[in-house]
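Hello K.,

You asked for the raw outputs rather than the summary table, so here they are, unedited. I folded two proteins back to back in the same session to keep the settings identical. This is the first:
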Amino acid sequence: MKALVTGATGFIGSHLVRELIKNGASVRALARKGSDRRNLAGVDAETVEGDILDRASLASAIKSCDTLFHAAADYRLWTKNPAAMYAANVDGTENVLETALAAGIGKVVYTSSVGTLGNPGDGTSGDEETPVAFSDMVGDYKKSKFLAERTAESFLGRGLPLVIVNPSTPVGPLDIKPTPTGKIIVDFLSRRMPAYLETGLNLIAVEECARGHILAAEKGRIGEKYILGNENLMLADIFEMLSSISGIPAPRFCLPHTPVLIAAYLNEAISAVTGREPLIPLAGVRMAKKLMFFSSKKARMELGFETTTAYDPLQRAVEWFRTNGYLK
């Protein structure tokens, strides 16, 4: 396999590059000019400069590749420039897949999100067939990824050999930004979380998520989507695990949703004026209203997708954040 990986400097993408190399694949990693490339340090991959919004650079990068993993995305719960997020996630996906179609790529794996899927929200696990509509999407990230997934699906009718994967909430090392979930871990370790808003998340080790991408390329059925997730956990349970790992007491106060929602609206109003990220992202508070539980049964049955526990990747994340100076 000779694979092109977009988003190769990011959290999932950098682990995907590593797992592909472990499997003996030849990897070409796409990186934007001036991007933070720490996650590719010491990795035996060919790094090429390009941008998913620049089709000429994509056409050059994809030459001689037989497999494409499109893992690039703008993942934030708040942005002062939503248009840029839609451009990266929607237009960027169209550019990448248009390039793959023109190049005659043999297999394409597109990294979507469980955020685009139906979710009962009451503790029942959603799956690939749970009904969903655009009106269910909360925040610009989910809206843009929903539209991007529809864009990806439109290429199936044009003959693109596409498989979609929907990761849940990956955790582990190399979360350099960090992601919103990584920020929760950093805030916990920095003792900046005296209270919390209860919700439910599905955690997956980022390394296992990356391996799921490779299984999708090898065994995934064209036109199908596969949830890559593992354990459904309440946030309070995640904090108890982090407490066990770190020795830091878990927050004891669970806040009611309505006052936090009001505070989030006020924060967003202030951020609209200052341009600074809100302390309480409105999209995050609105998402927390639902338990974001999902089932990976389809990926396990069709791909042979395997996972361990959520405790181990949380432990690796804690060690990585501590070692790399993220705690204040």
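The second followed immediately with the same parameters:
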Amino acid sequence: MPALKIGLFGCGSIARLVHLNILTRLPDVTVVALAESDPQRRAEMHQRLPQAATFTDYHDLLEKAEVDAVVICLPNALHAEAAIAALQRGKPVYVEKPLATNLEDGRRVLAAWRRAGVVGMSGLNLRFHELFHTTKQQLQVNRLGPLIAVRSTRSTAPYPLPPWKLHRHSGGGVLLDLASHHIDLVHFLFESAIREVYAEIRSQQSEGDSAMLQLRLANGVPVQAFFALNTSEEDFWEIYGQAGKLKVDRYAATAVEISEPTPERTRLEFLQRGVRMLARSPALLAKFLAPNREPSYRIALAHFVEAVRDKRPVHPDLGDAYRSLAVIDAAEESARINQAVVVPNLVDEDFTR
């Protein structure tokens, strides 16, 4: 089987730590071209992958390099135009989230995708995490009974941000950065559209760096979600049902926890949790916090490569990314007018090629 030739747009930290490491290790995959505007990074990439052609602009890469597919890891505000340029040349694309920074650009990407008729995948990689697959399985067998409510939190410690992440107009803000993942997981886990959102957004160290969202699903289940770029490192879910509670802690656990709604069982699980916390190794937390050790990245990129080879549909696709973006757009509108906003009932033609 000939190697699949990949072109990489953008060689920032996440591309260097994650995407490039994975792509260079996948079987029958070759990174043949790189596009990076920063001369120092471009020189570093040339030393690391001397066989790959390097370009200052992704348009030049598309025009001059022979690639079978592209992976886009540019700053958020450049995702849409880069994806459209690749799709117009008939290239399958893997686009890091978010799909775009506004719905108009998102619709333009979808239109280009429909016309191209090729694989279009979004980098919403947490769908491939084992903990969330286990969670989905438990929900599908109705392990928790009728659902009552859901809470989620995704936050990071304060760290220096690149200039483009400091302002919303250039693609910054916690909603595009972190909330896009959890919003997609809501759709994935509960298989129900988000119909209403109320949001409060604050700006402290950068624009829109924390947000509280109140979501209501089409099936009536309420979801409360908190996101922040300026506090502690956390990523967890609590799903409450009439038959118990399920907890997912991506940074501090290797399995989902299910609590049954009885006083005796609750006390026992409280003691067991204490034992697990005492036994927890700091290395476990370090493993989960290291981006290059997040297992779902490799599974997602391998899934993309296989879909390109087999010419088959893939999920999360660009339509899934657009759904996440539509909820973010509604959340920002809610924060502006200080009231709940109905998320548009997005029809199938918005997502199909």
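The longest strand covers residues 147-155.

Happy to rerun anything if the numbers look odd on your end.

Regards,
P.
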